[in-house]
Specification:
Number of helices: 0
Structural class: mainly beta
Radius of gyration: 13 Å
Shape: globular
Oligomer: single chain
Strand order of the largest sheet: 3-4-8-7-6-5
Order of helices and strands: EEEEEEEEE
Helix content: under 10%
Length: about 110
C-alpha cells in the first residue's frame, strides 16, 4: 500500500478498471480506509468475499467513470461504467458522503 497512498493518505495513482482500463478516479481524490465489508448475496448457498481495504470518496461527482446498481436493501454497488464489470465498490444510501472502492477490485497506474 505504501506506493498507492501519498503522505496525506490519498490515492497517489489513477484508479482504473481491471478489465478495460477505464479511469475511475484521479490521483488525490480518495482517502485510504480500512473497513470490513462482507459481500452479501441473496442465496444463502453463496458465500461472499470479505473486503477490508477501500478508497473512500466523499462526493459522487469525484468519479471519472462509475455506474451504480439498483438498490439492494440500503446498498448500491459500484461498477465500471464502460464495461459494466464489478462490483468494484459500494455505497450505503443512508450516507451520501461515503462511497467505497475496494482496493483489490481495481488497478492503480501512474500516468
Amino acid at each position: 500500500m505504501d506506493d498507492l497512498v501519498d503522505v496525506v493518505g490519498k490515492n497517489s495513482k489513477w484508479i482504473v478498471c481491471k478489465f478495460c482500463q477505464s479511469k475511475v478516479l484521479r490521483p488525490s481524490t480518495a482517502t485510504y480506509e480500512e473497513r470490513e465489508k462482507k459481500e452479501e448475496f441473496a442465496s444463502e448457498l453463496l458465500q461472499g468475499e470479505t473486503l477490508t481495504r477501500h478508497w473512500l470518496v466523499s462526493d459522487m461527482f469525484a468519479f471519472e467513470n462509475v455506474g451504480f446498481s439498483m438498490t439492494v436493501g440500503s446498498i448500491k454497488y459500484l461498477a465500471c461504467a464502460d464495461c459494466d464489470r464489478g462490483p468494484i465498490g459500494w455505497h450505503d444510501i443512508t450516507d451520501n458522503t461515503k462511497f467505497y472502492v475496494a482496493v483489490e477490485r481495481v488497478e492503480h497506474i501512474k500516468m
